[in-house]
Specification:
- With 120 residues, the protein is of the alpha+beta class.
- The protein has a domain of 83 residues.
- 22% of the residues lie in helices and 32% in strands.
- The protein is built from two helices and five strands; from the N terminus they run E-E-E-E-E-H-H.
- Strand 4 and strand 5 form a beta hairpin.
- It is elongated and about 45 Å long.
- The two termini are 24 Å apart.
Length: 120
């Protein structure tokens, strides 16, 4: 199974993302990047691959009103685009989980794996 990493940058009216893929015995490489813009007004998703070829450029339903809705729309696109990948989505509101995520984003040197997946 291929390894993927999703990097998110959330703002008040946009959700930017990059998808990186790591083939076996190779380093991480950019697979795609894009954004959902106009959250709460006129939501639109745009994504391009590493060669700048457009993968999607379409308006979203007007019910994408906040970050959670945008994350759901992004998850749907990721699931349809990266069918061979497992998508884990864990909307957490606990301070401990936010602090843990912040540590990983800040460069925690450990390797995340199945044991690190959020538990319900």
């Amino acid at each position: 199974m291929k390894d993927y990493a999703l990097v998110l940058n959330a703002g008040s009216s946009s959700l930017k993302f990059c998808v990186y893929q790591r083939p076996e015995k190779e380093g991480w490489r950019l697979e795609s990047r894009g954004q959902i813009e106009g959250i709460g007004t006129s939501p639109r998703i745009v994504a391009r691959n590493a060669e700048e070829r457009t993968l999607i450029d379409q308006n979203l339903d007007s019910d994408v009103r906040d970050g959670r809705d945008a994350l759901g729309a992004l998850s749907a696109w990721l699931t349809s685009t990266y069918r061979e990948a497992r998508v884990l989505l864990h909307p957490s509101s606990s301070k401990a989980d936010r602090d843990s995520s912040r540590n990983i984003q800040a460069g925690d040197n450990r390797q995340a794996g199945p044991a690190d997946a959020p538990r319900s």
